[in-house]
Write a structure and sequence with these properties.
single chain, about 45% helix, rod-shaped
């Protein structure tokens, strides 16, 4: 089976690829703006570092 090698075929293929990329980016923007991350355990400023949570939040909100 041979694929068509016309200009219209390649333009359609490029259009489909562009649509997939745009839809994926739109989904990422939607998830980023609609999600609300929960508070995760972290080391508070001044506390001794723990082996389970060695990092602290830059600006903890909880």
């Amino acid at each position: 089976m041979r694929l068509p090698r016309s200009r219209a075929f390649f333009l359609t293929l490029a259009g489909i690829a562009l649509a997939v990329v745009l839809l994926a980016n739109a989904h990422l923007v939607y998830v980023a703006t609609s999600s609300q991350p929960t508070c995760v355990p972290h080391v508070k400023a001044g506390d001794a570092a723990s082996s389970t949570t060695p990092f602290s939040a830059a600006k903890p909100s909880c």
